Amino acid sequence: MLLGLLWILLPLVVGYLIPLRDERIKRGIDSGVNASVYVILFLMGLGLGAMNDLLGQLSRIGTTALTLFAIISPLNLAVLAWLGRFRLARVERIEGHDAPATGSKWQAMKGSLMLAGVVLLGVLIGAAIQLAGWHPAAAAETLATWALYALLALIGCQLRNSGLGLRQILLNRLGLAIAVGVVLSSMVAGLIAAPLLSLPWNQGMAMAAGFGWYSLSGILIGDQLGPVLGGAAFFNDLARELVAFLLVPLFIRRAVPLAVGYSGATSMDFTLPVIQQYGGIACVPVAIVSGFLLSLLSPPLTLFLLSLS
């Protein structure tokens, strides 16, 4: 299992070691990440649709995702709300840049729902192929594994070329504190959820280590534990992001750690426009540092926990 962990982490490390300066290449990598995510999620859905007792498996996915969400979210929110009581959590507003705006929240949510739709499309096509007498699950799993390697390499390139240096990260104490709070509370939640889901402790913690990065958590869990638990991880983290879109406008002005922290790894990309619009430009560095750290930690932490089996 440890060898498998190193083999999967290798593309991530290789990608992180590649410095890029050409903006066209960077845009190409961004497009490649998006395309890889859609391909892998479709293949995950295809594998689900080809399983025997599909309705029963979908029921298990829903129950598992709901259990995870019901345990992780309250613990995350409690820790982040507690963090908001300290002076560290104060963010100085910048005059002329803090007028709230509306509009892009629903556009961002549309992107999340499109990814869920890709999984559903895969399930429907997989079920249809299975009824026709073909068995696509094994081929879908092999293709998804190779697509995962490519995705991890591209993600490594993105993280390396995000523009954040170690000094910038360490100087933003609030972003650091938010990331630590999310990680610790999520790991405790995973330990609590594990026996309820009849999972080993390390798998429960791995299921909680997505930190809202649904497109990757579902893929990593699915590759190691199968499409049912992969689907549960995906929908748990997807639900987190959708709720974050609703929480940010409500809390960003009076509870920055709660709004930014609950957005998890997505605070540096999908939910960042909403954070900026409703919280002001001063919240952007906090969101980027917190999201960057959670994005950097999520893949290796998930794979490390799974390697302990």
What do these coordinates show?
α2 (23-49) runs antiparallel to α5, α2 (23-49) packs across α10 and α7 packs parallel to α13 (284-307). It is built from 13 helices and no strands. It has one domain (2-7, 23-87, 96-307). It has helices spanning 2-16, 23-49, 54-83, 104-131, 137-160, 166-171, 173-196, 201-207, 214-225, 227-251, 256-262, 272-279, 284-307. With 309 residues, the protein is an all-alpha fold. The chain starts with a helix and ends with a helix.
Brief descriptors of the model:
13 helices, mainly alpha, single chain, 309 residues, 0% strand
Shape: globular
Structural class: mainly alpha
* Strand percentage: under 5%
Helix and strand succession?
HHHHHHHHHHHHH
Helix content: over 70%
Major sheet summary line: none
> What is the terminal-to-terminal distance?
8 Å
Rg is: 19 Å
Q: What's the number of structural domains?
A: 1
Quote the average pLDDT: 81
Please report the total strand number as a whole number. 0
Poorly predicted runs of 5 or more residues: 94-103
Number of helices: 13
